[in-house]
Amino acid sequence: MSFVVSPKAYARFMGRYAEPLAEVFVAFARVGARDQVLDVGCGPGALTAQLLSVGAEVAAIDPSPPFIDAMRTRFADTDARLGTAEELPYETASFDAALAQLVVHFMTDPVVALRQMARVTRPGGVIAACVWDGPTGALAPFWDAVHVIDPGAQDEALLSGAHRGHLTELFDAAGLRDVDEVPIAAEVVHPTFEEWWEPYTYGVGPAGDYVQRLGDDRRALLETVARDRLGSGPFTVIATAWAVRGTV
After folding, report:
1. What's the pTM value of the predicted model, to 2 decimals?
2. Quick one: how far is CA 87 from the chain centroid?
3. Along the chain (248 residues), what's the average pLDDT of each consecutive run of 10 residues?
4. Element housing 237 (H / E)
5. 142 three-class SS
6. Whether 56 contacts 31, CB under 8 Å
7. Rounded to whole angstroms, how far apart are CA atoms 142 and 93?
8. Which residues pair with 242 in a beta bridge?
9. CATH 3.40.50.1400 for domain 7-133+156-187+239-247
């Protein structure tokens, strides 16, 4: 699985869902003007952009060098660093809030990472995270098509936080207080099937890895099955995520 890809490829693949999701997620996290916020696993900046739009002061971190390069170009005044959630290079109690959008399910050790997020956040500050729901998230239509031709394929439904209550368990294990978990959603209209399908061929994340491992015949079959299920477009994907908020 790789996220060392071009920011443009990632934006085509996931940014189309991450950007509208960020608006709902920031409102859920109750972050606003003048709050000092850490964006953990920032990617090319969907969440950072939304945080800045509500007047927050943002620092950002991600383990992907291309993403951090893109962040430094796009947000020249933002402190964007290369690093992992499990070893955050910030002083204790540096932020009012720490947020992680679509990241917990790819953390090496989610509980350690959440404890790090809590460490760098002031007492009483907010820790919030969201991840796609396994059966109804942004990638569900893709994996539903995969399972027609490959019923045993391991999709992203088993990743951390991908079902109701799992994020809450992780937040509780990390020692956070007043934990609240709710479903949030982003609604995205795809004008054509090709616009929806093409980004899956870019090799981004588990779905992209799966497509790239297929031979030409199997890839063509998967594309045909997905088209039969979704139609030629336009069609709407309502992508549901679980969001959780806790207090340090």
Report:
1. 0.93
2. 19
3. 73 94 98 97 96 98 95 95 97 98 93 98 98 91 95 72 86 97 97 97 91 95 97 96 97
4. strand 235-247
5. helix
6. yes
7. 41
8. 131, 183
9. no
